[in-house]
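Board notes (copied after class):
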Amino acid sequence: MRNRSHRSRAVLAVVAAALLGVAGCDATGGDSPAPNGSTAAGRPSPRPTPAWDRSPGSVAAVGDSITRGFDACTVLSDCPEASWATGSDAGVRSLAVRLLGAAGAAEHSWNYAVTGARMADLPGQMAQAVTREPDLVAVMAGANDACRSSVSAMTSVAEFRTDFEDALDTLREALPKAQVYVASVPDLKRLWSEGRTNPLGKQVWKLGICPSMLGDADSLDAAATLRRDTVQDRVEAYNTVLAEVCAKDRYCRFDGGAVFDYRFGTDELSHWDWFHPSKSGQAWLAETAYRVVTARKPVA
């Protein structure tokens, strides 16, 4: 296990006190018989691919304002009932509702996402989530790591990787077999391209929404173009990290870039800020997550 921050260790100590510890691995002595599953030559046979449970019985969500349903219902407010992951809104039909039904979702789903959160906040959210012992944890984070006051303020790719690995480590120390669905970071450059056609949207952006990408929205000069391309490159690098780290975890499924690749339109953006998903956008996120979670095989 890699070294983690003092904060992460403190949070984990609390969680460990509430949950059963993970059993240690058994060792086999040199004169002991070969364990079950070993070949005659003494080489262990390949471990079977774990069976993915396409019908998990509980869902916890971690992430940022998108998972809180920010600006989906009212201006500058969270609307967790419209969350793609755990919301109760009948028009959205969240991942939890699709998996568990409305009554089941109300009792067996929990939303620990926080508006404004970055990947560095995910280990703490995950520590809260594991106290519920969910069968599935839905993850969507990373937009705020790129949406900073300037390009230089963006989270580095190395830090992003470490924070995401810490979050999964937090989960695995408490729940070794809990399943994880990871959504890719949305295409921020498409947000700029779609939203800049709306005069109201551009005025709202001036209040400080994702300045690294959306600042000076009408400028097409070389500096502005380079700034947006740099942010876009960072988002793509974040998604590569999410895919690579998830691929190393036997119970993790990445969306294959589906959220990033989606060619959304203005109807799927909040008409209060032209940045966060509207209820229509939240419904698409829920449908995409459900498709990945219930697929017979992981997305290629």
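Comment from the instructor: Residues 1-41 have pLDDT under 50 and may be disordered. The two ends are 28 Å apart (CA to CA).
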